């Protein structure tokens, strides 16, 4: 039995917040893709490399407000916000993950700037 999308999404945020890039790599399938309003990343290695080396702020924490699991366990929507190391809110996000065969296969991210 494969882990469901909720479990994988929780692992995803833990990996990012704790700089666990090997853990991140292990939960993504090789063809993983992310779409965001300002960019798209194709392939697990490109995504992990961006998160490890190129994202603007790495000392952040994802604060999850809600997980909304699909009935089929292969899709989840996550609502939350990202905080910097001082606890200041950077932006609000809505992530839609798709999972296949126990790995995350796709992520679509929507962001809204915080009013701060």
Automatic annotation (TrEMBL):
Organism: Haloferax marisrubri
Protein name (record): Nuclear transport factor 2 family protein
Highest taxon of the lineage: Archaea
Pfam families assigned to the protein according to its UniProt record, in alphabetical order: SnoaL_2 (PF12680)
Record-linked SUPFAM superfamilies: NTF2-like
Record domain SnoaL-like: where: 9-106
């Amino acid at each position: 039995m494969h882990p469901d999308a909720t479990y994988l999404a929780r692992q995803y945020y833990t990996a990012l917040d704790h700089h666990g890039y090997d853990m991140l790599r292990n939960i993504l399938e090789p063809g993983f893709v992310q779409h965001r309003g300002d960019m798209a990343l194709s392939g697990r290695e490109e995504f992990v490399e961006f998160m490890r080396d190129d994202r603007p702020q790495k000392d952040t924490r994802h604060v999850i407000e809600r997980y909304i699991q699909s009935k089929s366990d292969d899709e989840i929507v996550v609502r939350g916000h990202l905080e910097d190391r001082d606890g200041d809110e950077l932006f609000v996000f809505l992530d839609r993950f798709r999972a296949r065969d126990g790995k995350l296969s796709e992520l679509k991210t929507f962001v809204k700037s915080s009013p701060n």
